[in-house]
Amino acid sequence: MSLTSEQVKRIAHLARIEVSESEALTTQGHLNGIFELIEQMQAVDTTGVEPMAHAQDVSQRLRPDAVSEADRRAAYQAVAPETEAGLYLVPKVIE
Amino acid sequence: MIDKTLKQLSQALTAKEVSSVELSTLFLDRIERLNPDINAFVTVDREKTLAMAAAADARIAAGTAGPLTGIPIAQKDIFCAEGWRTTCGSKMLADFVAPYDATVIEKMHRDAGLVSLGKTNMDEFAMGSSNETSFFGPVKNPWDRQRVPGGSSGGSAAAIAARLAPAATGTDTGGSIRQPAALCNLTGLKPTYGVVSRYGMIAYASSLDQGGPMGATAEDCALLLNTMAGFDARDSTSLERPAEDYTRSLEQPLAGLRIGLPKEFFAAGCDAGVMAAVQEAIDEYRRLGATIVDVSLPNSHLSVPAYYVIAPAEASSNLSRFDGVRYGYRAPDYGNLDDMYMKTRAQGFGEEVKRRILIGAYVLSHGYYDAYYLQAQRIRRLIANDFVDAFKSCDVILGPTSPTTAFKLGEKSADPVQMYLSDIYTIAVNLAGLPGMALPCGFSGGLPVGLQLIGNYFDEARLLNVAHRYQQATDWHQRRPQGIE
Which residues is B397 bridged to in the sheet? Predict the structure, then answer.
């Protein structure tokens, strides 16, 4: 398998990372080297093997549906790039 | 004082031979003198450290101190610590002051009374094996300043090796505690997945990440793990288990212990000097009464390929939170919202991080999910099953930690694949979720060699015992780099 420069740009867009033409080319070379390594997996017959998503075979804990956290909005918003009246500010989305 | 173990420091503090303020000042002064060259710390705050030390001295005076109260340690900059800049080695978080404490921070500092000397340098978002991907520049290995300390916990490793801190925390997703410990002549432990809380530990690959201790000796690691481990309701993958004293079996004799040598770890691909040191360690274990048995991990060669699908897949999801909205870096100039995301992430992340996000986005994308992500998860199962089979005939598994000693700065940074292969012996342990340790076992060409011990699930105490007995019979772990006075 070999990624094209177009594919690299498409993935970069999916991941919301801006790439220039020259970055896409360098990245393409690196990613193809890595995928060559990853391709070793394809030689293995894994029919019937249960995929392992997690190291421990435990189910998610449930907790009572009750308030457990204190209101720390001010502290958490103090580290935001831009806020106003308790809201996070971003460029206008709806015209 | 700088060569004392945590137990010796604890005794000195209890006997009032030294105060925590004096001890902390000693290390802060060393950091001031040596860190400009080594670059092990990215954040130091003398005032905060000395306030913590004074509080620890008060606890000691009041008789309410725990065994480690007043001992200064370094924190990997992946753990959020309230009021401390917490960068994760990234431009994205270069100015981020954490508004809360990670559970590990809370347990070590508030509960156990350890004193923080500051935050240590690391590969950006823990993605790297040399500490060269840090936004704050590479860390130098105190054993040879032309060489890397390993990564991603390279700052923590270099800090201990240069005696800038008696011990430190690290995190290990594919070898990030064990490989730097090996390259810097230290002891480090990656616990069983779920033993140490991940709350407040900035996530890279959530199903693999695990925090753990790094120090000079196995006993130090056991004492630190006592303060770090334990169930935490705030981490959904934290395991509900009774508390353990990880020092309880340190002194147990090794007679009758069965040590398994996976033949795949002793095949071609490992430096001769590294292999020679590991072989000598095996002989030492024979003298200590252990029985050596051959085992096999037939799928271990697939661990690096499977890891570089699973870890980037999880990373691409975890790192989507860095969008310039709620915290961290935001690009100064942008058009619409999408453009703000794209520029923020392009400017805020370094090359290696972007590379792994792209791999992750690709293997999770429509049409490739089964071929890559599911196949990697199936191989992960095969790798975990290999260990289950191996542990039927042995108690611990032994091998090298890294195929080479510390490599030169810049030597592997141009070729990601070469860099990835330096974790060839450590990654399988994370995929399986097992505990693993690195400990000093000799030198090759003047550079430290690290032995790796792998235990069965929840067998940390036994691993520490096996390492501790070896350290009683050898003195590799007591060596200090030349030029570190």
Answer: B260, B454
